[in-house]
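An instance follows:
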Amino acid sequence: MATAARNSDSGYSQSLERGLAVLSAFGSGRPLLGVSDLARELGLSRSTAHRYIATLASLRYLQQDAMTRKYRLGPRVLDLGFSAMNSMELREISVPHLQELSDATGYTVNMGVLEGVDVLYIERSRSSRQGQREIDLNLHVGSRLPAYCTSLGKVLLAYLPGEEQREALRRIEYMQRGPNTITNGAELARELERVRMSGMAVSNEELAYGLRSIAAPVHAQTGEVVAAINLAVHRSMVSLEDLVANLGPTLQRTAREISDHLGVGQVRR
């Protein structure tokens, strides 16, 4: 709906829109923003931006960094995020399937959704198997990682509609994170095409040294990919060939089981 149409609605609040725009300006690549940064991005005067920021900070939706005097998202935002994730049909349906997969394989299983060009982790079933701690990376529900160098992210990017995918690839800020990180947009586009063809993504030490993972898509009944699940292992545990050949079908079967239980109304975040 156009802005003018929204503003003509007597129930529409421009102040609320601006407050939410302030919160939305923060991301994994920009965890700290100053008043001038936000004013410039949102097209507000510095005094107006400061007023919104001060209000959000007083309500604990933002907090100020003591050293830089810039702002970051505060604990109230995390509370809202966790409440939303806990209420998601997708997460509720998936938990027993993910735990069963982790128990059957002995490896950590993760589920994520796409948030911009990041993967947002919405569920984890950790394995206590020796060696898993070395690749845990302190991840937890609510963690974010760049999509381009993770198996979860490659699945989610691969199934974006054409123009959305092209826009996402333009927004990615590539950097070398592991020995085999893809740092070229054209190469990533070719990789995403391979993911769509095979129905599975592989990350072989692209995010971090020693970390391998495979991921598969979770579909809504509409056919839309709403999430992805993966198995993460240390390279000392299993060869890449065995990971794909022996565990890939099991992972894909779990993804299909979750998909079969999702309602028509479940949509990608």
The first helix runs from residue 3 to 7. Residues 212 and 238 are 9 Å apart (CA to CA). Strands lie at 62-64, 71-73, 108-115, 118-125, 144-146, 201-204, 211-219, 225-234.
